[in-house]
Amino acid sequence: MKMVEERENKFDPQQVIDEFELLSKDAGKIQEKTLQKILEENGRTEYLQQWGLNRKTDQVSFKNCVPLVTHKDLEPYIRRIVDGDLTPILTRKPITTISLSSGTTQGKPKFIPFNEELMESTMQIFKTSFAFRNREFPVVNGKALQFIYGSKQFKTKGGLAAGTATTNVYRNSQFKKTMKAMQTPCCSPDEVIFGPDFHQSLYCHLLCGLILRNEVQVVSSTFAHSIVHAFRKFEQVWHELVANIRDGVLSSRVNVPSIRSAMSKLLKPDPELADTIYNKCIRLSNWYGLIPELFPNTRYIYGIMTGSMEPYLTKLRHYAGELPLLSADYGSSEGWIGANVNPELPPELVTYAVLPNIGYFEFIPLVENVDGVEATPVGLTEVKLDEEYDIVVTNFAGLYRYRLGDVVKIKGFHNGTPELQFICRRNLLLSINIDKNTEKDLQLAVEAAAQLLLNEKLEVVDFSSNVNTSADPGHYVIFWELNGEASEEILKECCNCLDKSFIDAGYVSSRKVKTIGALELRIVKRGTFHKILDHFVGLGAAVSQFKTPRCVGTTNLSVLQILTSSVVESYFSTAFS
Asked: Which parts of the sequence belong to the GH3 C-terminal domain (predicted)?
């Protein structure tokens, strides 16, 4: 029995790389076979039968018969599955688990079917990127300090297990087996990961990491935000953590019995370790290089660092010192798309090679035809270098020609499969009339204005935005949380800089003729964005999956209320006066 287990747990990175090389060389053929497999498996479902496919499994028939859809189109079908309808609606085999999206984009989570095939593709992505990562940055018999949190799973009306996509992965036995095989098991026990209070779980993650500080070789989380959040917390509680290690007694702030019980097995009095950590902390200048000081054998920091996570990179680099930041793979609650097979690239340049066997992918060119009609989708091997596309996914869990809502750019090819760069979410737009500013445009504007704070030794802790159309003309509102007090003069400069940094032609011309009003910068109290995190966690979101909503609209009124009720100062731009 032990030999069988050892064989199962054996992980050969070179074999994984070789398999990926084969897949990527024949990407077109693999895509054809993957679609065929999906349609053979699910061709008799209610959803596919209504489009008159008549059990055809070729790409042309599929594209001609089955329409492009969004989540809204599939919602009635998914709702029936959630409520317990066991007939083959979207998939032949019944769906037994539902994933919830983070809900930070639209204000409420989406329900998405999850099955073993999706779990297998998750593990394939994890193994593929780990194999390439391990070739550049080897880890051997170490541990990972993973700031991961499983939210509560619940039963739907129809008896299906429902939880966030990350929770469904962490709770699956394959996840733990894979982490063990990749020689980076998590420092923290399950009771900490799945604890009911993430504040207590975070404290214990830090404590577990410190107890095992010499074994930690990777510091990671699903998103970069969670790593920054964890070490901001460390700055506040480090004296308490040191005292816990010195005395071998867990802080009274942890009151969940299962967590206390699990931690009691790890925490023993260790004055020497306490002194080491204390001395490391007091010698640091403004916490620069905190992570390698605490965890001296760390090889790299790992997590999703693109898109809405890019604004946290400056702070993460501050904590990381000289350690490399490696961006994790590209996926969503709906499933995975590509793996980072070039781990040496910095997060700002990272690309993702599409795995051609985990789903069927189409790409809509982001160019409109003369009559304003959307361009025709092209296949995985038909995309062109440096062009931007909207991704369409067909997977093994009942999504057919599903518009993901992500804009990607083709930056190269790994053999025959494209390497994508994530650009932005399509629906996160600041727009009043002819202006169109994306999440990336907002991020660049904030970065430019934040430069003005550097001389004051201040930084933007987090930010969001809103389009205020209650005033006439409407105007952009940017919310900033700062880590200290800034002078009125500096904030007025920042406000003007934000306004001038939106260089979209529609915005600039509208500002000049005053069909868009002066941009407003609102400073919110410290801790406001933490309140927003708590709000989403209260709705059942997992901290691991949390993304700060960058553009808060009418579908997210509760978050808008938190922001507006926390405003302490407000400035209007004079840049176009």
From this structure: 440-554
